[in-house]
């Protein structure tokens, strides 16, 4: 009984592999670049690509449970559908898919719409799956650490509605627990969705206040300018992706990323401990600088 982890060299996937190994699972890691395959002992590494069907068939042979993570890309939807079809042909029923919270709400945001399409296909194809829907990753803010510390401003377009930001480490551990739950069940378990959220919902002003406390100097919130946000992103990512992120930021401002009743309690019970907070992340970031 083998669990295949896709996106295994990324921040989430690598941690999922580590959690599974610690819990004694038989893990196979799918990688595009074997030179990045630095995994714990016992992990089987297979080189494959979602658009290389033959390599995908080989990677999924003998697999019982699949962790499906598809990166933001122009053809993300196509990649995920190919993976699902190959998985079905390989006899894989048990899946944990990393989607995104409010995928059915942020309908104009390309990578949200793509993930919602994948969710629909998982349902229509009859997979027994857990669909994980994470909110904004706390660690995304590592990309703006220098702006915060150097210019005294928090620039992400979080807005006043608030985002239930979640630590990537919590996402990975929950994903591993769900993979094991499905892998170890005597029969494939029914499909369900789980919102992955942090312990509190934070506005842009809230986050700036946390950084002000941690750094012991004023940090201002200045992130509502989504046009400027797009232009800044274009300096280090493709224009299509920067625009995608701008559209997401605009939905942050109008809709927020809000948990449903009971989400925090459910995740706390699942982990057996409190969820990691944004303040803890900020403190760790400053301490490690």
UniProtKB/TrEMBL annotation:
It holds the Pfam family NmrA. CDD domains: NmrA_like_SDR_a. It comes from the Bacteria. InterPro entries: Ergot_Alk_Oxidoreductase, NAD(P)-bd_dom_sf, NmrA-like. Residues 2-248 form the NmrA-like domain. PANTHER family: PRESTALK A DIFFERENTIATION PROTEIN A, PTHR43162. This is Uncharacterized protein YbjT (DUF2867 family).
């Amino acid at each position: 009984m083998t669990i295949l982890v896709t996106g295994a060299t990324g921040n989430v996937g690598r941690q999922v592999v580590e959690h599974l190994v610690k819990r004694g699972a038989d893990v196979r890691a799918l990688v595009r670049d074997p030179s990045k395959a630095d995994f714990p002992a016992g992990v089987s590494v297979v080189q494959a690509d979602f658009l290389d069907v033959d390599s995908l068939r080989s990677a999924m042979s003998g697999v019982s449970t699949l962790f499906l993570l598809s990166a933001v890309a122009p053809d993300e939807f196509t990649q995920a559908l190919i993976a699902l079809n190959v998985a079905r042909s390989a006899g894989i029923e048990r899946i944990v898919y990393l989607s995104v919270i409010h995928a059915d709400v942020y309908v104009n945001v390309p990578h949200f719409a793509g993930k919602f399409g994948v969710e629909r296909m998982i349902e229509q194809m009859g997979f027994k799956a857990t669909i994980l829907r994470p909110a904004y990753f706390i660690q995304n803010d590592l990309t703006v650490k220098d702006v915060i510390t150097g210019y005294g401003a928090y620039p992400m377009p979080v807005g006043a509605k608030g985002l239930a930001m979640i630590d990537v480490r919590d996402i990975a551990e929950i994903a591993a627990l769900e993979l094991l739950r499905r892998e170890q069940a005597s029969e494939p378990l029914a499909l369900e969705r789980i919102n992955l959220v942090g312990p509190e919902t934070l506005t842009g002003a809230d986050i700036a206040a946390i950084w002000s406390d941690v750094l012991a100097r004023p940090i201002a919130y200045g992130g509502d300018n989504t046009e400027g946000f797009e232009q800044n992103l274009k300096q280090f990512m493709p224009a299509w992706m920067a625009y995608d992120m701008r559209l997401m930021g605009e939905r942050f401002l109008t809709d927020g990323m809000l948990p449903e009743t009971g989400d925090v309690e459910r995740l706390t019970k699942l982990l057996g401990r409190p969820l990691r907070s944004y303040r803890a992340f900020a403190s760790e970031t400053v301490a490690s600088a």
